[in-house]
Fold this protein.
Amino acid sequence: MDSYSLRYPYDDLPAHGETREVAPGIKWLQMPLSFALDHINLYLLEDGDGWAVVDTGIRGERTQGYWNTIFERELDGRPVSRVIVTHMHPDHLGQAGWICRRFGAPLLMSRTEYYYARTFSSENHRQLPPEAIAFYQRGGVPEGILQEITSRGWGNFSNNVEPMPVGYLRLVDGQVLRIGGRAWRVVTGSGHSPEHVCLYCEELDVLISGDQVLPRITSNVSVNANEPEEDPLAYWLASHRKFLDLPDTAFVLPSHNRPFYGLHARLRYLIDHHEDRMLACEEKCTEPQTAYDLLPVMFSRELDSFQTMLALGECMAHLHCLMNMGRLERMLHQDGRYRYRSIDPGLSTRAHPGSHEDPDAAPLMV
Ligand SMILES: [Zn+2]
């Protein structure tokens, strides 16, 4: 057994339209997704005369159909009392507005996630904006792939997210929510999304982790065209160290795959995984490289144009973190592409990384 081993109390997911009680007053359900991930986990928390919903599934009739079944059969005739959304990604936020309107329930989110989502909801570019084209060109994306990316358009967020309530209740790091007589503490993380909310209940020793801590797959941590100089991996690594303050005994309820035990092992794995990838990039950059050149160092599989977009953002997250640590420098060449070069002349004498390679790791929009 290696030091990263996790323990999964359940062998399978609940069937669509059904729930499974995983702790007192906590029901687990899943909703289908149509992209690389085939499901998202959602949770119901008993909340006095109603149920608090944590995350909602992507917009669409299929998800709404399963929700209707849940509402009819799984809530003991009680209404949804509030809708808590961990972060703005459409698989989490997609149905929130629909559920809030149906039950007159409030939406609870962190401020950054709420306003990011409101901004993306109102974007209606059909063309890739010039900032995004420049972003990919500087990243070294070849013309043919850039054209494929361009043809996909821009601003599909509102297709996957129901219109949002114009008001919300703000969640803040450290805040304690009383849900069904139990105290749930808001613990925020950043890097996968800017102000991701997790919920920890000390009484039950349960952590609802969203995409902040996932077993098996690694969450996408990307630099994006709207904030092209950001360093999300630094936030991500800092968040993982912050989450090590939570008890290792916590039962973790994630948004994808199955609930698990082994919080600290998973956090340590993820920290090591990203540090290995940074070292691999740094070693390759003894000769100047574009971000696009480095994709094979980061991802061993073939990437289509959509995956290339995500992978490039993830690669740049590692490069920006290395630059801010003083381990890489960046030059803008005459061809309009950034190239990165490692600063440490002793790199080639180090052992090659890769001991923490995760065969399931993929660039995923989760
Ligand atoms: Zn996500």
Remarks:
- Residues 87, 89, 192-193, 211, 366 surround zinc ion (CB under 6 Å).
- The longest strand covers residues 39-47.
